[in-house]
Amino acid sequence: MPNAMAVQVTIYLNEADQWRHRPLHLEILNYLRKEGVYAATTLHAVAGFLGRHRVETAHLVEAGGKLPVIIIFVDTDEHVSRVLPTLKEMAAHRLIVRENVVLEQGNLD
């Protein structure tokens, strides 16, 4: 199979972010699954920062819900374009990165 093109989206959140009083990262994953997005993963970081704030680590007792959570998903350009408006609403003040990628193995079927 020749290399196929896809779109990968990365959303940078923190563990305290919520959507309608529920954890935002889980609500986004549920939304992506409901919309039939091909693949999505949530990564819970042990350290990091958002928006030029100080570095938060899992070692700090006072981290209090500020550790980074990253959602990465991959699908076709058409499918990503369809779900992004809702994601922008859900994560209104968070960084969302969209990039074209090459599928080296596998496909989106």
What does this structure look like?
The protein has 109 residues and is α+β, with helices and mostly antiparallel strands. The chain has one domain (4-103): Alpha-Beta Plaits. The protein has helices spanning 24-34, 77-90, and strands at residues 4-14, 18-19, 22-23, 39-44, 47-48, 56-57, 68-75, 95-103. The strands form 3 sheets. Strands 4-7-1-8 form a 4-stranded antiparallel β-sheet, with helices on one face. Strands 2-3 form a two-stranded antiparallel sheet. The longest helix has 14 residues, at 77-90. The chain is globular, with a radius of gyration of 15 Å. The protein starts with a strand and ends in a 6-residue tail after the last strand. The model has no long low-confidence stretch (mean pLDDT 88).
Short description:
The chain is α+β, with helices and mostly antiparallel strands and 109 residues long.
Choose one word for the global shape. globular
Number of extended strands: 8
Number of helices: 2
Task: Give a quick account of the main beta sheet: strands, pairing sense, barrel closure.
Answer: 4 strands, antiparallel
